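Input (structure):
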């Protein structure tokens, strides 16, 4: 079982990002790109990998007591690796609180004996995958839909499993963890 810790976006944020992705398709040559479905939009806090028993992870994450926070969309960017590129929307807003949540998740996993990779955390929502080395210069010309960025309330986070089917990958929520008031 492949697991990750993330928070979901509300419907307003998913709809906004879906409109942005469609606008991106009209603006940019997108041959070979695979755009994510809006219902899959989320912000990953920690990828845990495959073949993990969820029980100790749930137990460790249940101890986290971090206040709720509010974010918004903030910019676009890209990642590249040998297998594919990623086009993403960044988040902004209460970033100190978001990094506290990320630190609490990492600490909970380390306390449960699960290794946590040490790399910079760039919170984002994946919009599309591209062929390797085919990354656009989005920062130089992409315009967001002409409407205010929606607030993204973060009241919970969850443990998710990746499942595969004939129509691609799906994310199954295994357990939800509330943030405090």
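Output (sequence):
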């Amino acid at each position: 079982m492949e697991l990750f810790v993330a928070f979901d976006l509300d419907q307003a944020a998913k709809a906004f990002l879906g409109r942005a992705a469609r606008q991106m398709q009209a603006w940019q040559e997108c041959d070979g790109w695979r755009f994510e479905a809006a219902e899959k939009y989320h912000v990953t806090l920690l990828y845990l990998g495959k073949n993990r028993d969820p029980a100790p992870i749930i137990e460790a994450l249940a101890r986290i007591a971090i206040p709720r926070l509010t974010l918004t969309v903030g910019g676009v960017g890209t990642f590249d690796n040998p297998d594919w590129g990623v086009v993403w929307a960044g988040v902004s807003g209460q970033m100190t609180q978001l990094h506290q949540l990320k630190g609490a998740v990492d600490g909970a996993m380390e306390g449960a004996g699960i290794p946590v990779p040490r790399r910079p955390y760039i919170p984002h929502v994946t919009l599309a995958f591209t062929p390797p080395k085919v990354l656009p210069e989005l920062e130089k010309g992409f315009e967001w839909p002409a409407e205010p960025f929606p607030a993204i309330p973060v009241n919970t986070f969850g443990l998710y499993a990746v499942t595969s089917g004939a129509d691609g990958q799906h994310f199954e929520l295994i357990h939800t963890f509330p943030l405090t008031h």
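Notes: The first strand starts at residue 2 and ends at 8. The mean pLDDT is 89.
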